[in-house]
Amino acid sequence: MNFTDALEEALLARDLPIITFYDFFVLGERIFSTKKWGEHFLKRLPHNWDYSRARNAIKRMEERQALVPDSNFRSFVWRVTQSTRAGSAEEIICISDPFSYVSHLSAMHKYGLTNRSPEALQITTPKRKLWNSMQEERIKKDLPSLATFEPKLMFRPHYNEFVRRRKVSTHTTSSPWKPAKLAGEETRITTIAQTFADMLLQPALCGGMRHVLDVWAKEATIWADEIIEAINKHKSKIIKVRAGYIFTEVLEITDPRITLWKTNAQRGGSQKLDPENDYSANYSETWMISINVD
User: Fold this and answer.
1) What confidence score (pLDDT) does residue 148 get?
2) Which domain of life is it from (predicted)?
3) Are residues 110 and 64 in the same domain?
4) Helix, strand, or coil here: 89?
């Protein structure tokens, strides 16, 4: 078996619907370093494995029609033609961007917390500076034997407004969650507790604060411990004030961890329950927050 045949076999064994340039590079580097595929020692190995050789190998995969450029992306993403899986829009995006995840109303819908169908798939990814930092750490972990990473190996994906015929809305954050992975696929999603927290951080992306309060009133008690832990891990102060008000004054739940959140309340400030609505005179003295939701 030669090196090119091994690459094609590895694509089939991986059995994912798409592959990025970076993932292809890592796949090739591992085959090159072991110089075998399965029980087969390889013939016609390249003298080295680098950016240009990886690009040439992809061209050979295209000539074999094992890979075709994915039209939902601007560049550096290919469809694996013989994959047994087509992949959903969310899985395709999570493969193309290893730091992205399903969030907000899409996560709520996935967990059955809302009967509203999102107009667009909601995706969150780190802001560019943080994304680049996470990229560097990922490369060091995946490719420790490489002394340099030039030219660039991992690219932040640029996908179309519609991926697999589904509209996508992408949000960036400087405080990404550590998401969960859906069983049997590459899709990542906020945990149910993180999803409740996101409802208070960005209610407009979760159906609006009125809808968020309805969901919390119906479902949050069941997940109270997990929600408190998730909110404790987030650096936002306003989320703790909003959650503290809802837990104690709406749901009538008390907990020493919630009590500690009162230090985030600001007397004389302009904190609001709903960031999208005007300030209201209806006010929580305990949490020093305007209850500006009808």
Assistant:
1) 67
2) Bacteria
3) no
4) helix
